[in-house]
Design brief:
Radius of gyration of chain B: 19 Å
Number of strands of chain B: 7
Largest sheet of chain A: 7 strands, antiparallel
Order of helices and strands of chain B: EHEHEEEHEHEHHHHHH
Helix content of chain A: 10-25%
Radius of gyration of chain A: 14 Å
Number of strands of chain A: 7
Helix content of chain B: 40-55%
Largest sheet of chain B: 5 strands, parallel
Oligomer: heterodimer
Mean pLDDT of chain A: 92
Shape of chain B: elongated
Mean pLDDT of chain B: 94
Distance between the termini of chain B: 20 Å
Number of helices of chain B: 10
Chain lengths: 137, 222
Amino acid sequence: MTSHPVTLKSPATDAYNCVAYAACIEDVWWWPDPWNQYYWPENAPREDTVSAFIKAFATLGYEPVDVGMRRFDPNVSRLAVFSRDGKRATHVCREVDDGLWVSKLGRAEDVEHGLDSLGEYDYGTVHTLLVRPQEAS
Amino acid sequence: MFNRVLLIDDEKNFRDPAVRLFGSKGFRMEAVGTGKEARQRGKSRRFDFAVVDLRIAEEDGIDVAAELQKLQQDLPVAFLTAWDSDDARKRAAAKGIEPFAWYSKPLPASKQQLDFFCTDMRTSALTDRFRRLALRWRFETRHSSSIHEIAMHPAYQSIIGMGTEAVPLIIAQLRRRPEHWFWALKAITDDDPVPPAARGNLQAMAATWIEWAEEHLPQGKK
């Protein structure tokens, strides 16, 4: 599969981050900070581990699947959780079309990209894929 | 306490009285007469800001300032000069040096003028250091979603290290646009007025802290 290049889709904003954007939220910054200053789903552990991210997105109906399952399915919504060290989550992106993903790059812009196109942003690699039926909300 | 100053001036007749005067106003002064000495001091210890004579024993003070800023990133610099020179301003700009002030020699003579000069110099240097740190922090963390990474950035931690004097500067930034200053504000003030419902909503968080500042900061520092 040809990886899509990174394409800017919006101006930069501090209003939301990649985690919120993956959850289709654009007015809140999601992060499990230790001082409880930012939004994080109540039933998920307040830590920046991949497992805590999995539990956070489980509150929205997502569940993990084998990272090898990269086949596009229009009936399934997919998210990818990135990690540098295999433990701490650094980034989340959302699939919008076959091989085409969208991300919010920290405080910077929203972008469209391939799943393997974010190398320059130091997020590490895809650690976990999360899926839920497309009709769920 | 933001008061460690490196003064670089080759005129002993100016340098020694300046050290005494500034020292009497609470600054911890170190003074040298050459660019070489300045570089040595810059390598061995950290300063809050530097005041550099434009002409130091056949060296260009602008070059010395540039080298000091390479040694100490975010170091605010002011230039001393006996005359105002457009050429010097252009040379500084060409070398990427943005001084927080250009001061004319001689120093103010009266106590009242000197008090005002010292207060203004310190405030200008502090504001410039904050601006430099904030710029670097914004740029180097712009792609991070992690509040931990954003808050642990060395420039952000340096701003926290500025203590309560940073709070009015942070509030002024929040008035311009909501940014991730909330960790710093909590770390400095040991307070957090943001209600749970507003967590993560930067507009609402910023508005809450601006309201907090109206109540807690003295007049003139809101």
